[in-house]
Structures are given as C-alpha cells and as structure tokens.
Batch of 2 targets.
Target 1
Amino acid sequence: MEKRARYKSAWLPFVLVAPQLIVSVLFFFWPAVQALYQSVLLQDAFGSSVQFVWFENFEALWNDPSYLESFKTTAIFSVSVAVLGLTISLILAVFADRVVRGTAIYRTFLIWPYAVAPVVVGVLWMFLLSPTLGIIAHALRPLGIDWNHTLNGTHAMILIVIAAVWKQISYNFLFFLAGLQSIPKSLIEAAAIDGAGPVRRFFSIVFPLLSPTTFFLLVINIVYAFFDTFGIIEATTSGGPGKDTEILVFKVFTDGFKGGDLGSSAAQSVVLMFIVITLTVVQFRYVEKKVNYS
Amino acid sequence: MFHAKKALCATGLCAAFLNPAHAATDIQWWYSMTGALSDRVLELADQFNKSQSDYRIVATYKGGYDEAMAAAIAAYRAGNAPNILQVFEVGTATMMHAKGAVVPVADLMKKAGESFDPSAYVPAVAGYYTSARGEMQSLPFNASTTVFYYNKDKFAKAGLDPEKPPVTWQDVVSAAAKLKASGERCAYTTGWQSWVHLESFSAWHNVEFASKGNGLGGLDTRLKFNSPLHVRHVENLANWIKQGYFNYGGRKSEPDAKFFSGECAMLTSSSATYANIAKNAKFKFAVAALPYYSDVPGAPQNTVLGGASLWAMSGKSADENKGVARFFKFLSQPEVQAKWHQDTNYLPTTKVAYDLTRKSDFYQKNPGTDIAVQQMIVKTTDKSRGIRLGNFVQIRNIIDEELENVWSGKKTAKEALDAAVKRGDEQLVRFEKANR
C-alpha cells in the first residue's frame, strides 16, 4: 500500500510548501552562499576596498595554531555536552516514566529549563559559580576547591558544559519520555516474567527500542553544542581564560562582528559548515545502520 | 450648492501650500551610552533641537559600542547609515581607513562653512583622532583615561595614611603588603588590563607601545610592548598574584565591582567608573594618578585615551552635513562641554571647558574628578599622543588571552608578551593588506 498523500490539484502542494522554502532560502541558502563568497575576499569592514584573494583566508587559518587549538576545545566541549546531556536525560526519563503519583509535576519542572534562553542560562550559572559572589563557589571552598573560572581553564570548561547541558536536558527528556511511552508494556512485562531484573530489561529491551530517538537526539545535541551554545559562552567566559573555552562558533562571531574582519569570519564559518555536514553524514552512514526502526 | 466638506478640504489644502514652514531636517545619531549617561545624551540632543529650528537630532541607542559599530557597517553596506555614529577608541583605525565611508570632521566643517579651530582641543585627546596629515577625523566626545582608586577606610585600618595614595608601583607593593598583613584577602585588582598595564603604561612612561608613533604614523606599524620594561612590569604583576597581593577579576569592567563592593582595596580602571563607585561604595575612597616606575626617565608623561568619538558618515546630502556640522559646533561650545564634563566625569575635550570648570568650585566640591584631566592636559610626545592600530579589537583580545596565560601560570611574562606581539603583528599585517 502506498502511503503517499495524493493531491488533486497540481499547484496546491507547491503553495503549501512555499513558505518553508522561502524561509530556508532566505535564512540558510542565501547567507551560506554569501559566506562562501566572502570567504575568498579580503576586505575592510565597510566593504569599500575589496580584493579577491583565492584561499588566503583559509591558509591564514591553518597557519594559526590557536585556531587548531579551538578545534580541540570544540571537540571536548561537544562530546561532553552530548554524552552528559543524553545520559542524564535518559536516566531522568526512565525515572519519570516509572513514577505513578505526581507525574505532571515532575515533567513540568523538568521541561521548564528549555524555555530559558541560552544567554540567560549562562548568566544564571555564572552567578551561581562566581568566584566572588556565587553560593556554589562558596560551598566548594570548605571542600578544598578554590573555584575560579576566570583563571582556571578546566573550571571554565566545566562551567559552560554544565550550563549547556542543563538547558538541553529538558529537550532530550521530552523526546526520551515520548520514546519510552511508545514501547509496548507487554514486552517489558514478558521480560519481567522471564526473570529479568530492571537493569537487564533496560539494556536488552528498552535501550535498543529507543535507538531511533537516541540517534536523532545525538545529531541534534551535536549541532546544538556546535552552534546554539554561543550565547552561553558570550555571557560567561568570552572564550577565556586564555583560549580555553573558545569554541569555533564563538571565534566566528568575534572575528566578524567585533573585529570587523568579515573574510576570516566567513572562512571560519565555511569550515564549520563542512565539519557539521561531515559529522552528520558520518552519523547517518554508520550509526544509523545500528538503529532499529520497528 | 455649497458643499461644506469640499470647501473645508480646499481651504485646508490651500493653507498647507501657503504655509512657508519647512520641516526640520532629521539627523540620525546612533550612540551607545546607557543609564544616566544615556539621559545626558538625550538632553544634549534636546538642547540642540530647542536652540534652532532647521535641524532635528534624532538620537537612538543602538547597543554597546561593538554592536552599534556592526549595525552601522551593515547599514552602510545597505546604503542606510546614520548621519553620526559614536565609535569607541579601538575602532578608530577601522573608521579612519574606510575609504569614502566617513567624512573627516575638518572637511565637514569647512564645507559647511562653520569655523573650526583644532588647536582649541586638548592635544592628548584630539591627537588620537587626528590623521598623520594633521586633519581631525572625528569629534572627541566622551574621553576617559586610566586612574587609580583606593579604599581610604582599609588604608587607615592597615596603618597607611589615607591621604597619601601610592605614587609609584613600589609604593603600591608596600601598601599591598601592609594591607595583606592587616587581613585583606585582596589588596589590588585591575579592570581593562590591556589598556591600563600595557597601553596607558607605555604612554605614561614615554615608551612605545607600537612603532611609527604607536600607529599614528602609518599602517606599517608593528607592536613593541615586549620590551624589557613591559616584561618587568608583567612579571611583577605575576609575582603579586603569587604573593596574594593582586587578584585577577576579568578582562573589562567586571573587576570594578570587586572594588566598590569592598572586596579589593585598590583598583586601576577607567576614570568613567567614578560615577558607579560613588553610587555603590559604602566606604570612603579617593582617586589618584596612575602609579609609575620612578626609575624610568621621562615618567610620568601622560596616559592614554579611552571612550569614544563621533564620526560623520558619508553619502548624505549637503543639507544634512550642514546640520551635523552645526551640531558638532554646538557640542564644542565651552558651556556645553563644561556641563557634560561635570555631569558625566568624562574629560573636557577643549582647554576652555577645563578652565571654566577650574574657575568654578566643581573640583573642590568633587575631589578627585580633576585627576584624570591633569594626567592628560600636558604637552604630548611622539610616543604618548595615543595608540591607533588596525584590528585593535582582535589585538586587545590576544593581549587579554596571553595575559591570562601569565596569571594562570601557563606562560612566563616574556613568553606571553612575545606571543602576543607575534600574533598581534599578524593582525596588523592583515589590516594593512585589507586597507591598501
């Protein structure tokens, strides 16, 4: 049986899709083409003197050791955010699924952080962990930890990972919860009757059946860690101390909009685009093979 | 038949055509000041609008300095730039070398037939915004400089004389030692570390921060702040962190809060912070000149500018440019300047305005507000007129990063400054190429 919807009129489908197409063209394709074009130019901030310089902008990037450092920083950051985010939200979703009384309350509170903008999340955690005023920083002092994320690169990285993960947990939680609820209870009960404990049931039945959701969330989380965390970094560490929290997307912004160097900024965003495309292609080719769609 | 409505309409139309009133030309001004300062800006625009009826200044807050500049660049590329743009000092080179994007103030005033005397402006302030050929490019508006604040109550508690601030860096160390001994966890902190400890530091000691007169002489300038004196100073600061005298609080103005909250006893930061400190500090404090090394010949010379200036964008009609010129003339009047200086604590940009304020009892009533001026109202040398570099925003970022490497112990002072000079020079080369 074919599952395709059939339209009687020839133009209605195009009209219905047109708004989305227009948005995609305006907000993705056009800027992407502009970025590709600007990455091969060397120009002053106002665009009054423009020189075509082939791939010099890209060469300058490869020769800059700090740019290569920021690859490492971005990798550490995105892996931490993705792994921590998925793990914690999966655990929370499993617990929330089992709760009988007060489910609505738990779910509401766990979903709220998603409504908070990334910049606000950053400021929030910066206050909590401020070396001077923060209550968490204060509480860590008697434990022997002298928290100072303005001087200690590891502390700064921990700060932005916590802020980024906190916000994303809600999003992941929503999807995991929905995924868990779509697993037929009969399978779990059958396993329980056969004597499988909760942990065994989880790894043999629940986790494999959740794999489409997990795969989808993995892609989304990686893209989130690469791009949407800009607000958090801008509000908290500004890439510091030194270059310890300067992820690639942050450098794109500061070079382009604070420094006025649009050529280098465009080159960086082209590189970033290719990285994310490659990662997504890899994920779809190799990881998707292991996903069981029922 | 008499149609009342038609008659009324006809009368109205006739009246409109007969009325010789011509609407005032709107002049768009994009600025970046917030809070009380924004109110002062709007007052100025209002004052000008009320004083004449040909032009109307429409002042719009466009975000912080870098946001407003990015917005103006985008607007210019779309053919929609404002008439006047407030640009921070580090954006000066970008504006100056934008071929055809701006109209230099000197040209603007001449074409509009307004009289303009560049020598009326304080040299250390106007020199920053003047080209190598001696033409003033932008109108100095809100200029600040680096000063030293200290907590008098804590000084008294530590056994130091609260009326005698430290004058040299050696004095600062001995004061810090006494403060630490009296139980203070933070003796000294600094805001704007690049501006205070490298840029202003260089001019204050009459040494070069960058070649070619700190960039005022040409685009082929290169950085020079890894000289033995600079390395010595940064090494000292690194040692003070280890000894517990100096606490690092952040790259920009975040450390100001450490001072006025009472956490740190001494602060070097912008003179424009005075208003915030006066509002928030619950202790007696005073302003003093930036400390220096007494064994360096020529110190103290003068400190370096911060703040912003006003640029006239190009591509506007002659009438609008005339309006801009009139407004600039208005802003440079002694009374307007003096009031702006007294209300906001920014430096007076003309000597006459300074004299006016001195003759009144303003400085007596507000002790410490003249320190910043005294540091700047001097004859400048070719090394102290100001620092004007391309890609200065990126260079400041690089300096901040390398200094943070020193504070966290990852690099020595010499390694960090050498790395900063090397990376900064790459930015200068890039700017030179892009602005050929």
Note: The interface with chain B takes residues 42-49, 51, 60, 64, 66, 132, 150-153, 238-243, 254-255, 257-261, 263-264 of chain A (CB under 8 Å).
Target 2
Amino acid sequence: MPAPITVRTAVQTPAENRLTAAFLAVALVALFGGAVTGLLQALDHAGVHVPGQGVFVKSYYQSVSLHGVLNVLVWTTFFISGFMPFLMVRALGRPLASLKLGWLTFCLMLGGLVIAAIPLVGNAATVMFTFYPPLKAHAAFYIGLTLVVVGTWLVTLNMALTLRRWWADNPGRRTPLAAFMSMITFAMWTIASLGLAAEMLFMLIPWSLGWVGGTDPLLARVLFWFTGHPIVYFWLLPAYTSWYTLMPRQAGGRLFSDPLARASFILFLVLSTPLGFHHQFTDPGIHQGWKLVHAFLTFAVFFPSLLTFFNIVASLENGARARGGRGWFAWFAKLPWGDPSVAAQVGAMLTFAFGGIGGLVNASFSLNLLVHNTAWIPGHLHLTVGTAVTLSFMGITYWLVPALRGRALWSRRMALAQVWLWLGGMLIFSNAMHRLGLMGMPRRTHISAAPYMTAEWKALLPLVGIGGTLLFISAMLYFLNLALTVTASRRPCAGEVLFAEALSGPDHAPVIFDRWKPWLVLAFALIALAYGPSLVQLAATTPLDVPGLRVW
Amino acid sequence: MAKSGTTVYLYELAWILPSIAIPVGMLAALTVTAFGAGIHLPSVAGRVSPTRVADTAPFDHPGVVQVGPGRYEARMTSQIWAYAPNEIRVPAGSTVTFIATSKDVIHGLFIPGANVNAMLLPGQITRVTAHFEKPGEYPLLCHEYCGIAHHTMWARVIVEPRS
C-alpha cells in the first residue's frame, strides 16, 4: 500500500502572502524591462535598428546595462527574497518571526532599487551589472545597490529567527527540507555578499562621492568576484529547492533521497564562495598558482550539482513510473507535460545540463583563454540564469501567482506555448552566441557597428535576432497570462503548497547534516585558505590611485 | 513501488562514486594538458603608476623590439579607444611577448587567432606570450566594455612571410 504523500501546511498565512506578492511584483516589472532591452540588443546584432529606441536608451551600452541589472540583479534578488521566506513559512507551518521586519526589508530594498535606478535610467550608470571601476557611475547607483544587499541580510535574519523558534518548539526533529534549503541559500549568500559589501563600502562609494581620489580595478574585481560567482548559486539554489521539494510531487512521485539532497546543499554552503578567481584567469596581478587552486575548487562544486541532477531525475522517474511509465528512457514521456509548471522546470533543468558543461569549459584554466569575454559567455549565462533560473522561476509563478491571488491560472495552453517558445528561442540564441564566441566575437560590444566585423560572424548574427525575438514573444505571453490571472480569472484556486515526501526520508540522514556550526566553520576556513593570502597582500599593498572616468 | 532504504542507498552510492571520479578525471586531464602544452595564464608581472604610464619604461616608447633570434617584445599602452602601437609587424615563426597596460579604464587584449586573451588594468602590467607561425593579419581586439566607442577599439598584428 503506498504511503500518503500529501503534506498539507496547517496555517494559512495571508499576511505573508501579501509580502511575497509585493516582492514578486517588483521582480516581474524588472523582468519586463529586461526583456524589452534584450530584444533591442538581439535585433541590433542582426542588423535591425528599432526606430525610436533613443527615447528610452541613449546607447547600445545603456541598453545592455539595463538588461543586465534588471534581469540578473533585480528580477532574481526580489523573486528569491519573496519566495524563500514564503516556502519556509509553509514548510514550518508557522508565521514569519517578524512581519514588520519583513515589510521594513521590502521598503529598504525597494528604496535602494529606486535610488540605483535613477542614474541607471538617466544614463549616469552605464557600467554594466559588473560595474568595474574605474568606469565611474553616479554614487547613487552604488549606494542604492548596497541598500538592496543590506536588505537581503535582513531576509536572512528574519528567516534565521523563524527557524530558531521552530527548533525551540520541535527539539530533536529534523528541519523540513524546504526550510533547510531556504536557510542554506540565504546563509551562503550572506557570507558570499561580504566581498561586494566591502567593495561598495570601502572603495566605490567613498570614491564616487569624491571622498577619496582614486580606486584600484584589480582589488575591486577580486572583491566583486568573491560575490560574483556565488551569486550564481544564490540564483540557482531557489530553483533547486523547487526541483527537490515541490517538483517531484507535481510530477506525481516522491523525492528520491532527502539525505543526498541535504548533503548537496551543505556542499553548496561550503564550496560556493572560494572559487571566484576562475572569473579572473586572464587578469594580471593574481598569481597563476592561486588561479589553479580556484580552478580545482570550481570542479569540486560540480560534485553537488551532479548529485542534484541524479536525485531530481530519479525523483522524476519515480513520478513517471507511478503514472505508468516504462523502459529505460521511455518513462520520460509519461511526465505530466500538460502542467506548465512541470514542463518549465524540467526544460530548465535539462537546459542547465548544457549550461553546466559549458561552465566547466569556462572554469578550465587553459580552455578559458578561448572563451573569456567572448559571446560564448553571455551564451552560457543565458542557459544558466536565463533559463535554468528564469524559466524555473516562471514555472514556479504558474502556481505561486494563482496561490497568492486565490484564482486559477488564466490559460494553461498559453503557459505551455510560452515554455516551449522559451526553450526553442533559447536553443537558437544560445547556440549562435556560443559559436560566435568560439569564432572570437567579443561580448558586450556594439558589434553591428564594429569595424572588425567578419563575414562568418555576419552569417550567424541573424540567428541571435531570431532567438531573441522568440524569447521576447515568450516573455510577453508570460506577462499577459499573469496579468489576466490577477485581473480577469474567476475560477478559484485553493492555494495549497504541497511538498513532496521522500523515498529515503530525512531520518536516514546523519545527525551532522542538521548541525550548522561545523559547516559554517568549514566554509569560512576554505574561504580563508583560497582567498586569504591574495586578498591580504592586495589590500595591504595596493595604492588607491586610479582616478576614474565617465566615458559613455 | 516503494523502494527500501537499502536500495536507495545503493543507487546513491552508484551515482556518488562516478560523480567524484568525473570531475577528478577532468581536472587531471586539464592539469596535464595545460602544463604539458606549456600554457600560461597572465600572472604577477608588477605594477605601474596609472597616472604616469607615459613616463615609465618601457611604456614611454611603445613599439616592437627584437630581443633575440625570432623573439620580440610588443610594448603596448591602451587608452580610450586605441592602442599604441596600433600595428605590430613580425616575421612568421616569431614568438612575441606582449607587455601592456592601460592609461585610463580597463581594456582587453584579445587576439582570437593566437590564443592571446588578457585584461589590461590601470595600475597593473600584463605580460603574455604567443607564437605566430602562419603569415597573415591577426585582429587584436578590446573585449572589455570601456565606454561609448568600445567597439571601435582594435589593432592588428601583421605576420609577414619569412623572406
């Protein structure tokens, strides 16, 4: 007799729902802006200049800056800051420790976003989402982004307080998996964001305000990439959390192994940060030996990703077989492909397999020389944050928005069309970008106006335009569907969150998996080992003597 | 349908072991090929005062200098949106060491046809070596966003047939 697989949360939490909805609304507005600017750039690559765009963007480079900041910084961060506390509250079956703190956090992050957005929209911060000095943006850009980061620390605090209360009331019980994963995500991010915070507070903000005369690009890049690689895991882990704790149930089965899932997240907590030099393989001033150490650690973090891939696919197989699937591979067809939330997330996960393989090329010390700063990199990034993360988040909103609104999704068919359009468009776009990168086409470059354009690039560039257009149409279908769900849908939706049970449950996990101190100590120790010598040496000996320019 | 804990455990183990073996194997292959092929990444090559590049040797005289039989040094500076020199001529079969820096913002030093891919940071000296066997014209591109005319910043390496 099969065991019951429904876990229902006891409490309804409309107050938390409103907070999550507020974060989600900001995230979606950002994604909309990101989609529009993305279309302009893709068409420009294909040689099509959209008339009238000068009203909104002063240059190709302002468009790219908006696209990057809105998509990878705002859409992700606001979505995650709304979604993870929501999941934790549902998984623990108790309210957030402080709803007041939750709203304060939201106001701080929104305020920071507005402060940063003013110079960005006004062409005073056309410095890309990586904002490498000595390109010098208006101080408000740096101050605003810093406030957003401080806001995410308050999310961590609120979640930690919530979890502590649950521990106090439930001594000896295993933390529910979704709450555990949400906490790990924000703990990892809080540690990783220290690099960015230091760059902002000690370098960029005082320099852009004119309090100090100069800065140093190398030290700034080291601090940026201290945060800049783990931020990818900050985007990915919420998608993983959905794949682990919700998707198996949506697919009609159970999570294969809860202990293995915990192990992989603990490894992400420990290994996500000490590997940022693999973004700086081509930088002078960092010793080659340390670059190799970071390459090793990057391959180490591939291990928990492989564990995740296995665990999720095994869980999906469990669901598909329960639905009558047979054979070695034929079961795959029996997944509930008619559910847009599942189709989106399974598609996102399979796309990520290619993103992961490309990522290994990027991290491969010498192979990196072929692809660094070429079109290959945005090709890669659109598979990871642009699909594994974004399409998963879209899939999540296909149940989350109806749950928050209490109304069913407007159109399941429109949602399915959106998912397949995204996958098809991304296949075309990303494949072309990867190939252009291997042909030596640089990234973040107004390539249609470049004097060194080659015939072989020109032959492939229309595919970038076609892929980008399909992605844009997909995004518009997505927004239309959500807008109609919120305003026009009349069918009710119960809004339950159903977590998956596991074949091998949490009680099979060693006790040490539920302890925090040893893993946090290990995480800090590895960071000290991998970054300590280079960072101390750089911070101690680098004069801040590069003045900086605004040249856009 | 329900699998026992032991079966799950065996499946886990059957996946964990190759999951360790795959990255370890790739890493070994990578290390061997990188060092076997003698590929070097930019490393520590010293600092230069970013505001006094034009007065500091060797950047006070940008250009190509022969330093040995078949060996050349290209001493380069970059600034928005040009390189000095913007043309480097060497005979086929030359080994060229690029010694370069930036006078203002971050630029790139990217020669797609010759495995040269490095960043030029104000304050740092970048040193990379490449071998040019085939005659022809190799575009040298700036591949780091450096302002409004970034896409116009490039130079050429011209490899002349051996006489």
Note: The longest helix of chain B spans residues 5-36.
